[in-house]
Design brief:
The protein is an alpha+beta fold and about 220 residues long. It has a domain at about 80-210: Roll (Nuclear Transport Factor 2, Chain: A). The protein has helices at about 1-100, 110-120, 120-140, and strands spanning about 105, 145-160, 160-175, 185-195, 200-210. β2 (about 145-160) and β3 form a beta hairpin. α2 packs antiparallel against α3 (about 120-140). Mean pLDDT is about 75; it is low at about 1-35 and about 210-215.
Length: about 220
């Protein structure tokens, strides 16, 4: 009798222990299995975020470089336009001033001197003012008249502040020496111009070369 009771009492405990162990193992396995995909997804998301940040950073660098290049090209293009505009203005001023120097009448010298001085500045203005009295006397005594027939001019060098122009003028000159008959001649000069608040003035006339009228 005592041996049968002992065997009967131990069986439920053994079964319970085995059952509990199996249940815990299955639960742990299930939890581990369900957690693994979540961890992998999070890793992939973090990697994708890093790639996105990298791409955004590269895009920002490229955009910044593109904007910098655009700004540089804009100012470079603007500077080129300003330089070309300044050279054109200087050329026009030289083309206008050359004939002013070469077109005069001994009977109307006041207007001639005023026009020459109006377009001059610096050393050239001082020089012309200093010699105008002597020049007036020579032209008046010789009854000299000069008329411009042709003007050619070009800018040799120049920027937005100063320029150098070559001017070649065809002219006819009459005087007592030619018996008041117009004779063809040519006047060549190099003008140095200065931009004075938007107006180009002649500050130097380099050794005008005159071809004498044909006899």
């Amino acid at each position: 009798m005592s041996n049968e009771q002992t065997t009967t009492d131990e069986s439920p405990v053994a079964e319970l222990t085995a059952t509990d162990t199996d249940t815990d193992t299955e639960t742990l396995t299930a939890e581990t299995t369900s957690t693994a995909p979540t961890v992998g997804l999070a890793s992939r998301l973090r990697a994708m975020d890093r790639r996105r940040l990298g791409l955004r950073g590269a895009a920002a660098v490229l955009l910044g470089a593109s904007l910098a290049a655009s700004v540089f090209l804009f100012f470079e293009n603007q500077n080129t336009k300003d330089l070309l505009a300044a050279q054109q203005q200087a050329r026009e001023a030289a083309c206008h001033y050359g004939p002013v120097l070469a077109d005069y009448d001994s009977k109307k010298l006041d207007a001639y001197f005023a026009a020459v001085l109006d377009g001059s500045t610096g050393d050239w203005k001082k020089q012309f003012e200093a010699t105008s009295g002597e020049l007036r006397e020579v032209l008046t005594q010789g009854e000299v008249t000069s008329k411009v027939t042709d003007t050619q001019c070009a800018i040799r060098t120049g920027d937005e502040e100063s320029a150098e122009a070559i001017v070649v003028i065809g002219q006819t000159i009459s005087s007592l020496g030619t018996e008041h008959k117009p004779k063809p001649g040519q006047l060549s000069m190099v003008l140095r111009l200065h931009n004075d608040n938007g107006r180009w003035l002649v500050e130097k006339v380099n050794s005008p070369l005159t071809t004498a009228p044909a006899q």
